[in-house]
Automatic annotation (TrEMBL):
Positions of the PPIase FKBP-type domain: 121-220
Location of this chain's protein in the cell: Plastid, Chloroplast thylakoid lumen
Reaction(s) this enzyme catalyzes, per UniProt: [protein]-peptidylproline (omega=180) = [protein]-peptidylproline (omega=0)
Signal peptide: none
Name of the protein described by the UniProt record: peptidylprolyl isomerase
Keyword Thylakoid: yes
Length: 220
């Protein structure tokens, strides 16, 4: 509660300023206006006392409490970052809706290029990531930092690549700058032989369905 206002004698009486005949007289050695009102003999004004200044108490912060609050803040910030990263990853990894050609090749365009389409026998550059059907990566040109250069449509690469880039049989041709995922059945890939076989084990097992993320970089 705040301090009470200084008490004044006469606060319960009508305002002295409104009474008609006020005559200054001496009251207890103080000069003050005295009313002729019969209930007021001396209106003595008490000097208000100056209240003592408020005492400020400084409490040292609890170091352990500060640390706990800091850790809680960091954990909350990390949680927000993790949630944002999870949402970004989910948006970036939107699954493809494959279209299947009569040959059995399935394809999905992630980015449709704006350049020219490749022509049979033309030298082109392409980046790629090759995966088995279980998701295991067996090869990547990105890891080498250099795209693959080859002549498309003449058998320098597996059939699934030639068809998936040049097009035909229900598959539209890729355009330079485009990115396409190919799902290649064994007969358009490495067949019953597999690839990279040594000592009874193969990097690409026989009769494997392969997934390739192909980026048509440019015409060489």
């Amino acid at each position: 509660m705040g301090l009470a206002a200084p008490y004044s004698v006469g606060t319960s009486l009508p305002s002295l300023q409104r009474l008609p005949s006020l005559k200054p007289q001496i009251c207890n050695n103080y000069s003050s206006p005295v009313s002729s009102h019969r209930h007021v003999k001396c209106a003595l004004q008490l000097q208000p006392q100056t209240p003592p200044p408020p005492t400020t108490v400084t409490v040292a912060p609890d170091e352990s409490l500060v640390k706990r609050r800091t850790l809680i803040g960091l954990f909350a910030f990390d949680a927000v970052l993790a949630y944002s990263s999870l949402n970004s990853s989910s948006a970036a990894e939107t699954p493809c809706e494959f279209q299947v050609a009569p040959s059995g090749l399935a394809f999905c365009d992630k980015v449709v290029g704006a350049g020219s389409q490749a022509v049979k026998g033309q030298l082109i550059k392409a980046h790629y990531v090759g995966r088995l059907e279980n998701g295991k990566v067996f090869d990547s040109s990105y890891n080498r930092g250099k795209p693959l250069t080859f002549r498309v449509g003449v058998g320098e690469v597996i059939k699934g690549w030639d068809e998936g880039i040049i097009g035909g049989d229900g598959v539209p041709p890729m355009l330079a700058g485009g990115k396409r995922t190919l799902k290649i059945p064994p007969e358009l890939g490495y067949g019953s032989r597999g690839a990279g076989c040594r000592g009874g084990s193969c990097i690409i097992p026989p009769d494997s369905v392969l997934l390739f993320d192909v980026e048509f970089v440019s015409q060489a």
